[in-house]
Amino acid sequence: MQEIQVFLKSRSIPFEVLIHKPVFTSEEAARERGMDLRNGVKALFLKSKSNEFILACIAADRKIDLKKLEQASGLKKLRLASPEEVKEKTNCEIGSVPPFMNLKGFKVFFDNSLLENELAEFNIGLHTHSIRMKLKDLVQAIQPIIADYSKE
Fold it and tell me: Which end of the chain has the least Cβ crowding within 10 Å, N or C?
């Protein structure tokens, strides 16, 4: 959590930290933050057949299409990482993984659905802390691979 804030501050990127009761789903997070579900960034940690891990981010009101992401990433047989794999690789629990996994050396993918939003909100490693910032600043900070892999 601190690592992300230090990273953003070092680049003079404005953000707001939100402290709230624990949230475990995108819907709960949107209610607690008082914002539209589509502004949430759902960060899904995935594992490929070749044991490569990536992070796929989509707008919280969308679902991931793994076949489309496999095509976009060039990886085969993507699946959601297990809770144990997520904890081991990210030091976060499922539902609290931030989109900043580039700081840990993982490829980060953003779905086109995210780019439709002005604001982005996401957990920062804890179920009780989130960040709200401009989406364009988030893209600038992470420099993700942008592709089309969501479905409604």
Answer: C
150 within 8 A of 59, measured Cβ to Cβ: yes
State the CB neighbour count (10 A cutoff) for residue 50.
8
**pTM (global) more than 0.85:** yes
Structural domains of the chain ordered from first start = 2-151 (3.90.960.10)
pLDDT tens digits for range 59-112: 999 999 999 999 999 999 999 999 999 999 999 999 999 999 999 999 999 999
Residues 134, 118: contact at Cβ < 8 Å?
Answer: yes
Q: What is the C-alpha separation between 44 and 122, in angstroms, rounded? A: 12
- Which residue type, as a one-letter code, is found at position 7? F
